[in-house]
Amino acid sequence: MSIWRKLFTLGRAGAHEASAAVVDANAIRILDQEIRDADTAQGKARDDMATLVARRRILEKEVASFREQVIKYEGSARAAVGKGDMDLARQVAQRIADLEQDIALKEP
């Protein structure tokens, strides 16, 4: 039984050497392909980063717009309170609260 084990081990060693020889003979081709794969991955990462930057800028503009609306609505709420229209003041205050919630969700 030991002889069969040795022959099997010899066969595995031969297969390993053959595969290593193929890899060694084609090392430059393999390296070139790995470089191309890495270049493709880098291009995709660059595109993904550009997309994220664009999304961030859009969110920043939305947050700035919401902040401007809050300032405008605060003035409207003060005016409504000054006129004694508490129902309108509450509605405006609710809108301000909604905008502030949107700001909290979208702010980085």
Overview of the structural elements:
- The chain has 108 residues and is mainly alpha-helical.
- It has one domain (2-106).
- 94% of the residues lie in helices and 0% in strands.
- It has 3 helices and no strands.
- The relative contact order is 0.07.
Summed up:
The chain is mainly alpha-helical. The chain is built from 3 helices and no strands. It is 94% helix and 0% strand.
Please report the distance between the alpha carbons of the first and last residues: 69 Å
Structural class: mainly alpha
**Proportion of beta-strand residues:** under 5%
The SSE string, one letter per element, is HHH
> What characteristic shape results from the CA principal axes?
rod-shaped
Number of helices: 3
Query: How many beta strands in the DSSP annotation?
Result: 0
What gyration radius follows from the Cα positions, in whole Å? 34 Å
Provide the number of structural domains: 1
Mean pLDDT: 91
Question: Helix amount, in percent?
Answer: over 70%
Main sheet attributes: strand count, strand direction, barrel closure: none
**Uncertain runs with pLDDT below 50, 5 residues or more?**
none
